[in-house]
Input
Amino acid sequence: MGEHSHPARHGVPGGIRAFLLALLLTLGFAVVEIIAGSWAHSLTLLGDAGHMATDGAALGIALLAAWIALKPASARHTYGFGRMEVMAALVNTLLMLVIAAAIVTEAVLRMRHPPVVHARVVMVIGAMGLCTNWVIYRVLKQGDNSLNVRAALLHVLGDMLGSVAALVAGIVIYFTGWFPIDPLLSLFIALLILISGLRLLRDASRVLLEGVPPGLDLATIGLSMAGVDGVRSVHDLHIWSLSSSEVSLSAHIVIDRMDAWQSILLSLQDHLYRSYGIQHATLQPEPEILARIPVENLGRRS
Output
């Protein structure tokens, strides 16, 4: 009979508070940039506002994922609700691509006829954005070290680059009066949004297609499992992501003695957790005699 192990779901109120505070700061400053960018006629500020808004949506997804992680699986949703963050990520990706396209279109028009930009406002808001994003970065660093937090930190670093672009645009216009620098740097921000969106699309697609998570190698894990005492070989090994932060594994384990299965199971679970951080494993024991039927073994002890 197959044995199943589930990771215990623990509350992460500190992580949720960090995400919530970062979300409020990000969206709040995005509103400030929209107002200032419209008044100062700065596409760089408006583009950075769009960047922060999309990153705010990404933080919202991370917050949703942290909250959902507190909910146990149900009879209808036996794996829980982790895939909701992936669905939201796909929607977020489409939004990011639309915003990037809008910035590029507007930048091309403004490069032909650059409007007068209020340089001092752009400089001040750019500097404020840099400081705000630094605060957000520090807030998130004080949370846990989960994949969600690390991904959010990358988004915030992108926002910092956007604020630097706004600050540089303001300085160049103030000292030289060269207004085309504003739409040019907005193209840089559009590129940041595009890169973030494509990365998010890649990660979401990998989860939906149940691909092997990055950093894990199927053959290596199979061979290491076959090296556990009492295990003869491993086949039908599958590794996939339930969500962006939860990895599942299933495999058939060929053993010498069925009466030793409980101790072998505990050894395999401990090995998978300590070596690869895999807590959710479904393992099916098979006696050695069944292994004589031709199968493709991913791991076999010589």
In short: DSSP finds eight helices and five strands in the chain.
